[in-house]
Amino acid sequence: MSNLMGERRKKVSDDGERSLIKTPSNASIASQANAATAAAAASSTGDLERAARKQFQQDVTPAFVYVLAVFSALGGFLFGYDTGVVSGAMLLLKREMNLSALWQEVLVSSTVGAAALSALAGGFLNGLFGRRVCILLASFIFTVGGVVLSTAPNKEVLLVGRIIVGLGLGIASMTVPVYIAESSPPQLRGQLVTINTLFITGGQFIASLVDGAFSYLRHDGWRYMLGLSVVPAVLQFLGFLFLPESPRWLIQRGLTQKARRVLSQIRGNQNIDEEYDSIKSSIEEEEKDCVGGGPVIWHMLTYPPARRALIVGCGLQMFQQLSGINTVMYYSATILQMSGVRDDKLAIWLASVTAFTNFLFTLLGVWLVERVGRRKLTLGSIIGTGLSLTLLAVGFLLSAQHTPPVTLHPSDPSTPNSTCSRYGSCEPCMLDPACGFCYRENSSSVFATSCVPVSPAYTGEAAWGRCSNATQTKDGTYWAYNYCPTSYSWVVLVGLILYLAFFAPGMGPMPWTVNSEIYPLWARSTGNACSAGVNWTFNVLVSLTFLHVAQYLTYYGAFFLYSGLALLGFLFIYGCLPETKGRRLEEIESLFESRLCSCGASDADEGRQIEYIRVKGSNYHLSDNDASDVE
Ligand SMILES: O[C@H]1[C@H](O)[C@@H](O)[C@H](O)[C@@H](O)[C@H]1O
């Protein structure tokens, strides 16, 4: 490895191309001087920071970096679409292909499992072939997966298609944030990377609409649902044929001339000298520090700053999933049914309201990330998430305490000893996956209640009796498979809305955003591969265990457990997450240098960042040579 690094260093130190740098025009120098004046005139540090940022964005940020971010974030859209669309597709598939519960579970989790594995492999591919090739590869894989899924003749081919899609998901989920972070100017980086998560939640929302629309098509509707992902995948593939490689990766590989060209392309009229030099010298520094051979993960584990960054990155992803987002999203249709929406179709449409709320509040995160910073946003978010989870748990607890008793004990001659008939009230009946609650309702009460076995083919019906034909029958008889009728459903509904409002701006996007920036360049691919792998692994663990956890601990127990985990997450974030706002990627490693886990950013750190932006704001008019004095 040291030999390799020595060779690379030689290439990196080739500096013969300085004449290729675009020198700033008089107009740009004048406008940069305006930036400084505007910044200097601002009275308070907050005004100063805002003025500098605004002026910088107006003068220096070319539209190209936004185009680049949006095309990359199509990877996020596919992430959201492919993970979201499957629930609606499964409703149709299980009838059409007669899928057992095991097959349904395998089809849903195979994608997430494959994503976990391919995210890990993506680290290696990223280092070797670069970010652009990996994004091209991911969109190609998505396209193939979409075609296989939409034309699948049987469940085995469906499984192959779901695994292919998962392979694309893993690579895209770890590459896209890194690519955007490496191409963005520091003061926009948080916002642009967070756009990727906005696209994830946007993909989930569109998937829920597609699910709603095609659920009316009883035959082959699932083919359209699963196959439509080909459209954004092809769009991204075509776009990336024309988009450039990450300049940082190019410099690392010694392709300095190309890196300069790309940097001036994405920075427009801004002078790139300072940025180029700082990236290059930090890579040289990194390479000097890095001695000995062996895999990058070993170097990360034995080099304290990289190890701390890895702990923070993986911990954030783990706590994101442990705070139960995918359970809450998945369960939202049932929560809505509990609250009185008894019609199946309407519940599917209302689930898209949940997905839209998640999307809307992620937009708030895009707006807040560069204003309040990553640390405060994540801390505020996890506190709110934990409290909303407690409210959800209290709602479920109240419903359980006032659960309606079973008043009728009908027995079917073919299943006389069904365990269902032994339950005395709705709560234990509904928690048993083999049983459901059948009841009649009028405006003031629930009556004529019974606990009966669920139909083996479809959980939306009872195996026999009054509820064997549909979720809701004409005479006001209802079938409740995984909820109990309750007058406390409003508490759960408020909990759900608050949960999304708090989770989506912070805990949703920040783990991805922070991971894209905390690792030094030599460890960035591997660090992101590991943390994305952790995200997918905990995603599959939490979704696979939810029903079992609910069965043993009841729903309120499961939600109390999640809120306890959110509390642990808060302590972890409070103790370990530093503020990275406004810093260059190359500066961030120093945040992990001395402290145990790089604990909280102090006010002094905040001051330094404002100073950094201020100095940069007033520095644009300086000559190229002066620029280096600033750092
Ligand atoms: O950041 C995303 C987002 O919050 C999604 O809504 C969720 O489904 C994903 O698991 C998560 O990684």
Automatic annotation (TrEMBL):
<comment type="similarity">
    <text>Belongs to the major facilitator superfamily. Sugar transporter (TC 2.A.1.1) family.</text>
</comment>
<feature type="region of interest" description="Disordered">
    <location>
        <begin position="1"/>
        <end position="22"/>
    </location>
</feature>
<dbReference type="Pfam" id="PF00083">
    <property type="entry name" value="Sugar_tr"/>
</dbReference>
<keyword id="KW-0597">Phosphoprotein</keyword>
<keyword id="KW-0812">Transmembrane</keyword>
<dbReference type="GO" id="GO:0016324">
    <property type="term" value="C:apical plasma membrane"/>
</dbReference>
<dbReference type="GO" id="GO:0005366">
    <property type="term" value="F:myo-inositol:proton symporter activity"/>
</dbReference>
<feature type="transmembrane region" description="Helical">
    <location>
        <begin position="133"/>
        <end position="153"/>
    </location>
</feature>
<feature type="transmembrane region" description="Helical">
    <location>
        <begin position="192"/>
        <end position="210"/>
    </location>
</feature>
<feature type="transmembrane region" description="Helical">
    <location>
        <begin position="63"/>
        <end position="81"/>
    </location>
</feature>
<feature type="transmembrane region" description="Helical">
    <location>
        <begin position="159"/>
        <end position="180"/>
    </location>
</feature>
<keyword id="KW-0472">Membrane</keyword>
<feature type="transmembrane region" description="Helical">
    <location>
        <begin position="222"/>
        <end position="243"/>
    </location>
</feature>
<dbReference type="InterPro" id="IPR005828">
    <property type="entry name" value="MFS_sugar_transport-like"/>
</dbReference>
<feature type="transmembrane region" description="Helical">
    <location>
        <begin position="555"/>
        <end position="577"/>
    </location>
</feature>
<dbReference type="InterPro" id="IPR036259">
    <property type="entry name" value="MFS_trans_sf"/>
</dbReference>
<dbReference type="InterPro" id="IPR020846">
    <property type="entry name" value="MFS_dom"/>
</dbReference>
<keyword id="KW-1003">Cell membrane</keyword>
<feature type="domain" description="Major facilitator superfamily (MFS) profile">
    <location>
        <begin position="68"/>
        <end position="581"/>
    </location>
</feature>
<keyword id="KW-0325">Glycoprotein</keyword>
<dbReference type="InterPro" id="IPR050814">
    <property type="entry name" value="Myo-inositol_Transporter"/>
</dbReference>
<feature type="transmembrane region" description="Helical">
    <location>
        <begin position="101"/>
        <end position="121"/>
    </location>
</feature>
<dbReference type="InterPro" id="IPR003663">
    <property type="entry name" value="Sugar/inositol_transpt"/>
</dbReference>
<feature type="transmembrane region" description="Helical">
    <location>
        <begin position="346"/>
        <end position="369"/>
    </location>
</feature>
<feature type="transmembrane region" description="Helical">
    <location>
        <begin position="488"/>
        <end position="508"/>
    </location>
</feature>
<keyword id="KW-0813">Transport</keyword>
<comment type="function">
    <text>H(+)-myo-inositol cotransporter. Can also transport related stereoisomers.</text>
</comment>
<keyword id="KW-1133">Transmembrane helix</keyword>
<feature type="transmembrane region" description="Helical">
    <location>
        <begin position="381"/>
        <end position="400"/>
    </location>
</feature>
<dbReference type="InterPro" id="IPR005829">
    <property type="entry name" value="Sugar_transporter_CS"/>
</dbReference>
<protein>
    <recommendedName>
        <fullName>Proton myo-inositol cotransporter</fullName>
    </recommendedName>
</protein>
